[in-house]
Write the structure tokens for this entry.
Amino acid sequence: GLDAVETAYLVGGSGDNVISASLFTLGQVTLDGAAGDDNLTGGSQADSIIAGDGNDVANGRGGNDMMSGGDGNDDFTGGGGDDTLLGEAGDDSLNGQGGRDSILGADGDDWLFGNGSPDTVTGGRGNDQVLGGASGDLLNGSSGNDTVDGGDGSDRVFGGSGTDMLVGGDGADRLNGQGGSGDVVLGNDGDDTVQGGSGNDLLDGGPGYDELRESGNVDFLLEDTSLDGQGADEISSLESARLTGGGDANVIDASGFSGPVTLRGSGGDDLLRSSSFDDLLLGGNGDDTLESGSGLDTLEGGSGTDRVKVSGDGDFVITDTTFTGPATTSSMAEIEAVDILAGPGDNILDASNFSGNTTLWGGGGRDVITGGIGNDWLNGNDGEDELNGGGGIDLIHGGAGSDLLFGGDGDDTINGEAGDDTIDGGGGNDHLVGEDGHDRLLGRDGDDSLYGGTGNDELLGHAGRDRLNGESGNDTLLGDLDPDTLWGGNGNDVISGDDDNDRLYGQSGNDTLLGAAGDDRMQGGSDRDVLSGGDGDDTLNGQKDYDTLMGGEGRDRFNSFDSTAVVNELFALPDELFTAIDRVRNG
């Protein structure tokens, strides 16, 4: 009898064999059909069925079976148990049926069906039909132009190379067309993840809340109906997106997409543009720029020197960890710089609690702009604006309108541009330029340079060794504390050195130069000037035309003027002024 038999090995001949172990329950069997069109049936245990060449039919029945086909068009059914089905050459039909099966079509145009429990089904070479069952399957078309259908359950579906049709079916499926161009990827029911891969693909999420995913070392442009990147994809019914760049400097632009996005830069100096929804932007390595929309975004720069950019009409407040716009507050991490472009209204841009560098530009209204602790670039643009650089080395432009500009601490450069501006350098060695209009410039602390520009300007150096130049217009210049150098420029200017040893130059126009205290050097210029040395040992040079020179207290020197003019002017002076003239030298 067979009561003691635990394994059986049955081998067919070269013809068409029928070998069945369906009634054998004592142990495992190995069935070898050899050549020919065979019909092989396993037993209830973990059997090995080798169909061999020919068009074979095999059924593993119970147990975890191993089934291989060889050449020919084979028809395999795994039966119950966790089976492995290998079609090899030929156009095979492989049905895993029950259990967790592993199915590989290999060569040929195969029909592969996972059926019951979660299965792994791979088409191999050829144009295959790969079908999942009711559970969550792993399906891969591999080479060729395949149709891959996940069926019910939450499946992972891959097209492989070639032009493939991917169908998610019911459940939350993950579909990826992978290589090849012209893939059709359909999520169908459920909340699916859809990816086209390389080539020009058609992607449709179907019903449910579906996400588009794509990655590659390319630039991406995402809109509601298209994605350009790995190819030119047509998209529909996709409610969110996740795009990832590569190692180079990539531009990932989702500003035209109506849904939340996750954008990841990876390596390189990337530019990420969010949608108008609540997005996650991750710069990764490199010096990245993250452009935030109107949603509640999470902005993480990663390594490198990263920048956040935003625009809109409304008020903005920036700290090291938050970014508050007109309607939402976004979070920030590892961000070293912030750029804001305001709209046409009256906006407040406040970066006073941000430790990085900022670029803050107003719009057309009356804007109030405050820089942070770092180095800032502020521009009021149109309107009558108030700008304050705060700490750091700042560059400030008033733009059109009569602006109020403050440099704050640090060595700042401030340009009033158009309008009647008031410019206050604050601490540090500042460079102040009034440009157009009647401007008021105050250097305050530090060694400052003040330039009035066109218009009738007022320049006050205050503390430090300052350089003041009225340029065009009838200007008023006051050096104030410490030794200063003052130029009137064109126009009829009033120039006062005030305390300490100053240098005053009237240049063109009928100027008034007042030395005040200190040993001052004064030069009138080409027109009719009045020079008054004040206290101290002063040097007065009238230069050309009819000038009035008054020495004041101290030992004063009068130099380099036309002798005729000097005589006329000297004799026109009141008698009491002669006592203040210690020495006169004609040029």
Q: What stands out?
A: The two ends are 143 Å apart (CA to CA).
